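Renewal narrative, Specific Aim 1. Our central claim is that a sequence can be written position by position from structural information alone. The example that follows is taken directly from our test logs and has not been curated for this report. It begins with the C-alpha coordinates describing the chain, in the order in which they were read.
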Protein backbone atom coordinates (compact mmCIF):
# COMPACT_ATOMS: atom_id res chain seq x y z
CA UNK A 1 0.00 0.00 0.00
CA UNK A 2 1.39 3.36 -1.05
CA UNK A 3 0.09 6.58 0.53
CA UNK A 4 1.15 8.85 -2.34
CA UNK A 5 -1.91 10.22 -4.12
CA UNK A 6 -4.31 8.87 -1.50
CA UNK A 7 -7.08 10.85 0.24
CA UNK A 8 -7.11 10.39 4.01
CA UNK A 9 -9.19 11.41 7.00
CA UNK A 10 -7.43 11.55 10.38
CA UNK A 11 -9.52 12.06 13.50
CA UNK A 12 -8.08 13.46 16.70
CA UNK A 13 -5.58 15.22 14.46
CA UNK A 14 -5.34 18.52 16.30
CA UNK A 15 -2.41 17.21 18.37
CA UNK A 16 -0.51 14.09 19.35
CA UNK A 17 -0.51 10.98 17.19
CA UNK A 18 -3.22 12.34 14.91
CA UNK A 19 -1.30 15.50 14.08
CA UNK A 20 1.87 13.50 13.52
CA UNK A 21 0.00 11.15 11.20
CA UNK A 22 -1.39 14.08 9.22
CA UNK A 23 2.11 15.49 8.78
CA UNK A 24 3.55 12.11 7.81
CA UNK A 25 0.79 11.45 5.29
CA UNK A 26 1.14 14.81 3.57
CA UNK A 27 4.91 14.37 3.49
CA UNK A 28 4.30 11.06 1.73
CA UNK A 29 2.11 12.61 -0.94
CA UNK A 30 -1.38 12.14 0.51
CA UNK A 31 -4.09 14.76 0.95
CA UNK A 32 -5.67 14.90 4.37
CA UNK A 33 -8.80 16.03 6.18
CA UNK A 34 -7.60 17.04 9.64
CA UNK A 35 -10.46 16.40 12.07
CA UNK A 36 -10.61 17.26 15.74
CA UNK A 37 -13.13 18.15 18.42
CA UNK A 38 -11.12 21.36 18.84
CA UNK A 39 -11.62 23.14 15.53
CA UNK A 40 -8.86 25.68 16.28
CA UNK A 41 -6.15 23.05 16.76
CA UNK A 42 -7.31 21.24 13.62
CA UNK A 43 -7.09 24.50 11.69
CA UNK A 44 -3.56 25.15 12.98
CA UNK A 45 -2.36 21.72 11.85
CA UNK A 46 -4.02 22.07 8.45
CA UNK A 47 -2.62 25.57 8.08
CA UNK A 48 0.92 24.29 8.51
CA UNK A 49 0.31 21.49 6.02
CA UNK A 50 -0.94 23.86 3.34
CA UNK A 51 -2.99 23.07 0.26
CA UNK A 52 -2.90 19.31 0.82
CA UNK A 53 -4.90 19.54 4.03
CA UNK A 54 -8.23 20.92 5.18
CA UNK A 55 -9.58 21.15 8.73
CA UNK A 56 -12.95 20.15 10.11
CA UNK A 57 -14.03 20.54 13.73
CA UNK A 58 -16.58 18.30 15.41
CA UNK A 59 -17.27 15.29 17.60
CA UNK A 60 -16.46 12.21 15.50
CA UNK A 61 -18.59 10.13 17.85
CA UNK A 62 -21.55 11.58 15.92
CA UNK A 63 -22.31 9.90 12.60
CA UNK A 64 -23.36 13.25 11.13
CA UNK A 65 -19.87 14.63 11.77
CA UNK A 66 -18.22 11.61 10.18
CA UNK A 67 -20.51 12.06 7.17
CA UNK A 68 -19.39 15.69 6.98
CA UNK A 69 -15.73 14.64 7.04
CA UNK A 70 -16.33 12.30 4.13
CA UNK A 71 -18.25 14.96 2.21
CA UNK A 72 -15.49 17.52 2.72
CA UNK A 73 -12.83 15.04 1.64
CA UNK A 74 -14.75 14.16 -1.52
CA UNK A 75 -15.43 17.80 -2.35
CA UNK A 76 -11.86 18.99 -1.77
CA UNK A 77 -9.77 16.00 -2.81
CA UNK A 78 -11.81 13.03 -4.05
CA UNK A 79 -13.01 9.67 -2.70
CA UNK A 80 -11.63 8.65 0.68
CA UNK A 81 -8.94 5.95 0.51
CA UNK A 82 -7.68 5.94 4.10
CA UNK A 83 -9.53 6.49 7.38
CA UNK A 84 -7.60 6.86 10.61
CA UNK A 85 -9.94 6.36 13.58
CA UNK A 86 -7.46 7.96 15.91
CA UNK A 87 -9.56 10.13 18.24
CA UNK A 88 -9.70 8.71 21.74
CA UNK A 89 -10.42 9.68 25.31
CA UNK A 90 -9.67 8.30 28.74
CA UNK A 91 -12.50 7.59 31.10
CA UNK A 92 -13.41 7.01 34.69
CA UNK A 93 -11.43 4.97 37.21
CA UNK A 94 -13.05 1.71 38.34
CA UNK A 95 -16.47 0.57 39.48
CA UNK A 96 -17.22 4.12 40.57
CA UNK A 97 -17.01 5.36 36.97
CA UNK A 98 -20.24 7.13 36.14
CA UNK A 99 -22.70 6.16 33.43
CA UNK A 100 -21.67 9.32 31.62
CA UNK A 101 -17.98 8.34 31.70
CA UNK A 102 -18.75 4.89 30.35
CA UNK A 103 -20.98 6.30 27.63
CA UNK A 104 -18.39 8.87 26.54
CA UNK A 105 -15.58 6.30 26.35
CA UNK A 106 -17.74 3.86 24.41
CA UNK A 107 -18.90 6.57 22.03
CA UNK A 108 -15.47 7.92 21.09
CA UNK A 109 -13.25 4.86 21.49
CA UNK A 110 -15.58 2.32 19.87
CA UNK A 111 -18.75 3.62 18.26
CA UNK A 112 -16.91 6.34 16.36
CA UNK A 113 -15.04 3.51 14.60
CA UNK A 114 -18.25 1.60 13.93
CA UNK A 115 -20.00 4.64 12.48
CA UNK A 116 -17.09 5.52 10.22
CA UNK A 117 -16.86 1.97 8.92
CA UNK A 118 -20.62 1.90 8.34
CA UNK A 119 -20.31 4.91 6.03
CA UNK A 120 -17.09 3.95 4.23
CA UNK A 121 -16.76 0.20 3.95
CA UNK A 122 -19.67 -0.48 1.53
CA UNK A 123 -18.16 1.98 -0.95
CA UNK A 124 -14.70 0.49 -0.49
CA UNK A 125 -16.07 -2.96 -1.22
CA UNK A 126 -17.61 -1.64 -4.44
CA UNK A 127 -14.31 -0.02 -5.42
CA UNK A 128 -12.27 -2.99 -4.27
CA UNK A 129 -9.97 -0.91 -2.09
CA UNK A 130 -9.86 1.09 1.13
CA UNK A 131 -7.84 1.18 4.35
CA UNK A 132 -9.20 1.53 7.90
CA UNK A 133 -6.65 2.23 10.63
CA UNK A 134 -7.84 1.99 14.23
CA UNK A 135 -5.80 3.57 16.99
CA UNK A 136 -6.45 1.37 19.99
CA UNK A 137 -3.81 0.87 22.68
CA UNK A 138 -1.67 -1.78 24.29
CA UNK A 139 -4.43 -1.60 26.90
CA UNK A 140 -6.65 -3.25 24.29
CA UNK A 141 -4.37 -6.29 24.22
CA UNK A 142 -3.32 -6.27 27.87
CA UNK A 143 -5.27 -4.02 30.24
CA UNK A 144 -5.12 -0.56 31.80
CA UNK A 145 -4.46 -0.45 35.51
CA UNK A 146 -6.52 2.37 37.00
CA UNK A 147 -9.24 2.79 34.36
CA UNK A 148 -11.96 0.27 33.59
CA UNK A 149 -13.67 2.30 30.80
CA UNK A 150 -10.40 2.91 28.96
CA UNK A 151 -9.33 -0.73 29.19
CA UNK A 152 -12.71 -2.14 28.15
CA UNK A 153 -13.27 0.23 25.24
CA UNK A 154 -9.77 -0.27 23.87
CA UNK A 155 -10.34 -4.03 23.98
CA UNK A 156 -13.54 -3.40 22.03
CA UNK A 157 -11.69 -1.26 19.48
CA UNK A 158 -9.24 -4.11 18.85
CA UNK A 159 -12.14 -6.54 18.55
CA UNK A 160 -13.96 -4.38 16.03
CA UNK A 161 -10.83 -3.96 13.92
CA UNK A 162 -10.34 -7.74 13.93
CA UNK A 163 -13.95 -8.24 12.85
CA UNK A 164 -13.57 -5.74 10.01
CA UNK A 165 -10.49 -7.52 8.74
CA UNK A 166 -12.05 -10.97 8.93
CA UNK A 167 -15.31 -9.84 7.31
CA UNK A 168 -14.02 -7.57 4.54
CA UNK A 169 -10.33 -8.42 4.15
CA UNK A 170 -10.98 -10.55 1.08
CA UNK A 171 -12.99 -7.75 -0.55
CA UNK A 172 -10.21 -5.19 -0.84
CA UNK A 173 -10.62 -3.57 2.59
CA UNK A 174 -7.37 -3.47 4.52
CA UNK A 175 -7.38 -2.96 8.27
CA UNK A 176 -4.65 -2.12 10.77
CA UNK A 177 -4.88 -1.71 14.54
CA UNK A 178 -2.31 0.44 16.34
CA UNK A 179 -1.57 -0.60 19.93
CA UNK A 180 1.13 1.57 21.52
CA UNK A 181 2.01 1.89 25.19
CA UNK A 182 3.28 5.26 26.38
CA UNK A 183 3.20 8.11 23.87
CA UNK A 184 3.90 11.75 24.71
CA UNK A 185 0.34 13.06 24.31
CA UNK A 186 -2.26 14.77 26.48
CA UNK A 187 -3.53 11.42 27.72
CA UNK A 188 -0.17 10.81 29.35
CA UNK A 189 0.04 14.24 30.96
CA UNK A 190 -3.12 14.05 33.02
CA UNK A 191 -6.09 13.48 30.72
CA UNK A 192 -6.32 9.71 31.02
CA UNK A 193 -8.73 10.00 33.95
CA UNK A 194 -9.30 13.75 34.12
CA UNK A 195 -11.85 13.71 36.96
CA UNK A 196 -9.75 11.60 39.35
CA UNK A 197 -6.13 12.77 39.81
CA UNK A 198 -5.16 9.81 42.01
CA UNK A 199 -6.48 7.18 39.61
CA UNK A 200 -4.99 9.09 36.68
CA UNK A 201 -1.59 9.17 38.36
CA UNK A 202 -1.76 5.40 38.95
CA UNK A 203 -2.77 4.69 35.35
CA UNK A 204 -0.08 6.96 33.93
CA UNK A 205 2.56 5.46 36.24
CA UNK A 206 1.59 1.99 35.03
CA UNK A 207 2.16 3.07 31.42
CA UNK A 208 5.42 4.94 31.95
CA UNK A 209 6.88 2.19 34.13
CA UNK A 210 6.14 -0.52 31.57
CA UNK A 211 8.25 0.88 28.74
CA UNK A 212 9.63 3.88 26.88
CA UNK A 213 7.50 6.93 26.15
CA UNK A 214 7.60 7.50 22.40
CA UNK A 215 7.05 10.70 20.48
CA UNK A 216 3.94 10.95 18.29
CA UNK A 217 6.24 11.27 15.29
CA UNK A 218 7.86 7.92 16.11
CA UNK A 219 4.44 6.30 16.22
CA UNK A 220 3.36 7.90 12.93
CA UNK A 221 6.48 6.62 11.19
CA UNK A 222 5.86 3.12 12.53
CA UNK A 223 2.23 3.22 11.39
CA UNK A 224 3.02 4.26 7.82
CA UNK A 225 5.82 1.70 7.53
CA UNK A 226 3.55 -1.09 8.79
CA UNK A 227 0.76 -0.01 6.44
CA UNK A 228 3.16 -0.36 3.51
CA UNK A 229 3.41 -4.04 4.44
CA UNK A 230 -0.33 -4.16 5.27
CA UNK A 231 0.26 -5.52 8.76
CA UNK A 232 -2.86 -5.77 10.91
CA UNK A 233 -1.28 -5.38 14.34
CA UNK A 234 0.99 -2.34 14.60
CA UNK A 235 3.11 -2.27 17.76
CA UNK A 236 5.25 0.86 18.15
CA UNK A 237 6.52 -0.78 21.37
CA UNK A 238 7.72 -4.23 20.17
CA UNK A 239 7.80 -5.55 23.74
CA UNK A 240 4.00 -5.53 23.77
CA UNK A 241 4.07 -8.66 21.61
CA UNK A 242 6.08 -10.50 24.26
CA UNK A 243 3.67 -9.35 26.97
CA UNK A 244 0.69 -10.41 24.87
CA UNK A 245 2.20 -13.83 24.26
CA UNK A 246 2.90 -14.25 27.97
CA UNK A 247 -0.70 -13.36 28.72
CA UNK A 248 -2.05 -15.91 26.27
CA UNK A 249 0.31 -18.69 27.31
CA UNK A 250 -0.68 -18.59 31.00
CA UNK A 251 -3.59 -16.29 31.80
CA UNK A 252 -3.63 -16.99 35.55
CA UNK A 253 0.08 -16.30 35.89
CA UNK A 254 -0.28 -13.10 33.89
CA UNK A 255 -3.19 -11.88 36.04
CA UNK A 256 -1.22 -12.60 39.22
CA UNK A 257 1.72 -10.69 37.79
CA UNK A 258 -0.49 -7.72 36.96
CA UNK A 259 -1.84 -7.70 40.51
CA UNK A 260 1.74 -7.66 41.84
CA UNK A 261 2.59 -4.85 39.42
CA UNK A 262 -0.42 -2.86 40.63
CA UNK A 263 0.57 -3.38 44.27
CA UNK A 264 4.10 -2.21 43.50
CA UNK A 265 2.80 0.91 41.78
CA UNK A 266 0.57 1.76 44.74
CA UNK A 267 3.31 1.06 47.26
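The sequence written for that structure reads:
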Amino acid sequence: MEIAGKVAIVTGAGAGIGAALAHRLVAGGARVVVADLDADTAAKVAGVLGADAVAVGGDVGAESVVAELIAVAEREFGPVDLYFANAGIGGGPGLDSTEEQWAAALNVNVMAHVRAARLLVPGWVERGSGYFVSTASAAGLLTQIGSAPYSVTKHAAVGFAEWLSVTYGDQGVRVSCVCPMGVDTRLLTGDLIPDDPDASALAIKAVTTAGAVLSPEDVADTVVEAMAAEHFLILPHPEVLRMYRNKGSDYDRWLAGMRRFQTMLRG
